[in-house]
Design goal:
This protein is an all-alpha fold. It is 78% helix and 0% strand. The protein folds into two domains: 1-50; 53-96. The termini are far apart.
Length: 96
């Protein structure tokens, strides 16, 4: 598949203009694209267009924090599992 001749900003502007009230046919004629291409853009990037670069960075930051929380929980669980195994082992020795 060949790359698009439109960058993400141009696609975002086109989606915003149509959602603001510009007729779809006029926008497609101006850009030289088919309505199918426009609908594909809309399904791929959403009706509101692409997220702003700052929004994308905040999502990446939040994702990294969540990964860190999961890693911390995993380590804590492993530590508890090992201490429980040690406790059970010591308890079984004491019963003998």
């Amino acid at each position: 598949m060949r790359p698009s001749r439109f960058n993400e900003d141009q696609i975002r502007r086109a989606l915003q203009q149509v959602s603001a009230g510009t007729p779809l046919a006029a926008m497609c004629r101006t850009l030289g694209i088919t309505p199918t291409t426009f609908y594909r853009w809309r399904s791929r990037y959403g009706a509101g267009g692409l997220p702003a670069p700052g929004d994308l960075q905040s999502l990446r930051t939040e994702n990294q924090k969540l990964k860190q929380v999961v890693a911390d929980f995993f380590l804590e669980r492993e530590m508890l599992r090992k201490s429980l195994a040690k406790y059970e082992r010591d308890a079984s020795k004491a019963r003998r």
